[in-house]
Amino acid sequence: EGRETRLRVVLRVRPLTCTETRRGDRQVVHSLGDGAVHVSAARHDATFGFSAVFDAGASQEAVFEGSGMRQLVELAMNGFSCTVFAFGQTGSGKTYTLMGPLAQSETQPASPALLGLMQRSFTCLLEQSRSRGSDLALSASYLEIYNEQVRDLLSPGPPCALPLRWSKTRGFYVENQLSVEFESLEAIVSLLLQGSQRRRTSAHALNRHSSRSHALLTIHIVSRAASACPSKQGTLCFVDLAGSERVKETGSSGELSVEANSINRSLLALGHCISMLAKPRGKRTHIPFRDSKLTRLLARSLGGSGITLMVACISPSSRCLSETLSTLHYASRARRVTTRP
Q1: Has keyword Nucleotide-binding (predicted)?
Q2: Is 157 one of the annotated binding-site residues?
Q3: Is 92 annotated as a binding residue?
Q4: Does 259 reside within a domain?
């Protein structure tokens, strides 16, 4: 507590898709073990290091255990503000890593082996709560940022834009967002699936289920302590960023193109904030958190008093080399960012 803590950054390399294999794409990303990954292609030969690297054969459980997600859940229960976010090119496996298969629903749940970081964290949170015998009050809020509008995914009726405010005590917060209490695994998984089905997605040349918005699911954890002890308030926030994309590659036009430009602008603002935060404290100038709604909502977890895990997702295909290198450089910069939990 209070000590400088580096962002933990892990990398996940998805398998080549059937389309990529049929097309004859080469695999240009290779795991070297011990958190190192090598990119070898014409004019590009580089090695990058991370806290952990999960290659195409890694199971969802291996990613949960190896990324440090279990420790993050425990820290959130102890009153810390914890965030995990997945980023990378469109179609690189971010939503699958966080949630598991897209086809799942309340009537057709996913196979337990395929469940993502979110469901595994919910299970871990409720198991820890029972084993400690602690009296926890749990609630969840679920938002999306679509074309620079913040929308509530849990409130009934069509999603409407909510104002983003700032206060000295709370920092940036969303006014009038709905927070729903839950006590069981079934209840929180139901909220997750309900909100995810309302999220904006579209099909394009690189991804049949491309997320067109950034989504933030926050679990609020309040431990009702005995009268002698103060209660602890922690949060566990999951951020599924929309993927960066080149309009030429995706074939987007019209509304899809407008969405892509909005996504890329907010990711650029996030990259700029990370670059500034990666500088030594004495050399930092103003951090431009106000440049986008995404960076405002992530200000606390990136540059303040939070504990953050970043999961960078990439494709090993030679055709995606440019975007893959961009993600790897982005993730390498993020490893230098520190916070004071």
Answers
A1: yes
A2: no
A3: yes
A4: no
Residue 79 lies in a domain: yes
Q: What span, in angstroms and rounded, lies between the C-alpha atoms of 282 and 70?
A: 33
DSSP annotation of 43 reads: T
Element counts in the chain: helices (H) and strands (E): 10, 19
What is the H or E stretch that residue 210 is in? strand 207-211
Neighbouring CB atoms inside 10 A of 238's CB total 22
Tell whether 88 is in a known binding site. yes
Polymer length in residues for the chain: 341
Which residues does residue 52 pair with via DSSP β-bridges, in sequence order?
10
Domain count, the chain: 1
For 77, phi and psi rounded to 5 degrees?
-65, -25
235 three-class SS: strand
Structural domain harbouring 37? 5-100+115-156+163-204+211-247+285-339
Encode pLDDT of 272-303 as tens digits.
998 898 888 777 778 899 999 999 998 888 87
What the block records as the tokens of 110 is 């996913």
pLDDT tens per residue, range 83-134? 999 999 888 999 899 999 877 887 888 899 999 999 999 999 999 888 877 6
What is the domain-level CATH number for residue 304?
A: 3.40.850.10
Does 90 appear as a known binding residue?
A: yes
Give a yes or no: residue 267 inside a domain.
no
* Residue 110 domain flag: no
Say which residue, 267 or 188, is predicted with more confidence. 188
Nearest-angstrom CA–CA distance, 270 and 296: 9
Answering whether pTM is above 0.85, one says yes
Q: Check whether 95 is labelled as a binding-site residue.
A: yes
Assess contact for 161 and 150: CB atoms under 8 A.
Answer: yes
